[in-house]
Amino acid sequence: MKNRRCLDAAAGAVVLVVWVLLIGRYIRLADLVPTHFSFAGVADSLGPRHLLWIMAGLMVLSHAGLTLLAARPNWFNYPVEITEQNKSRQQQNMVRFTTRARLVVVALVGLPIIQSTNLALGVRVDFFPLAILSLGLILLALVGYHLFQAFRLA
Predict the structure, then answer these.
(1) Cα 9–88–141 angle (5° rounding)?
(2) CA-to-CA distance for 106 and 18, rounded, in angstroms?
(3) Residue 70: enclosing H or E segment and its boundaries?
(4) Residue 63 burial by Cβ neighbours in a 10 Å radius (0-12, 13-18, 19+)
(5) Could you tell me the pLDDT band of residue 1, with boundaries at 50, 70 and 90?
(6) Apex 103 CA angle, 100 and 105, nearest 5
(7) Is the full-model pTM beyond 0.85?
């Protein structure tokens, strides 16, 4: 439970930091900002700066949706048959998954927003491609681990 609260707080902190940075930087951004990046982290597409608000909104919706799912484990579409014997363990597994995935998902959406504002303001950060790749792999690992757990607990 303590670990879950820490992950909840970390995910909320990521959302808050991204919003604070976006609010603080928005007025200084040009009308066109980087909106897409190559695997090397190079901006390869520009778009209107208001798209950053849409991305930030999607980050909040992702956070809220995963928070709601964690609070309602009976809403999940489980990969195994749920019985009275395994119901509690399966629900705990999926709550752990959504709690962990929420932090990764908001970071995956938030990092491009930060990278876009960094590049638009002339700040070069070289860790972006590695961070995105790492977060993607972590999310895949979480999916795989919790699917494995679901079948193991069945």
Answers:
(1) 55
(2) 9
(3) helix 51-71
(4) buried
(5) low
(6) 105
(7) yes
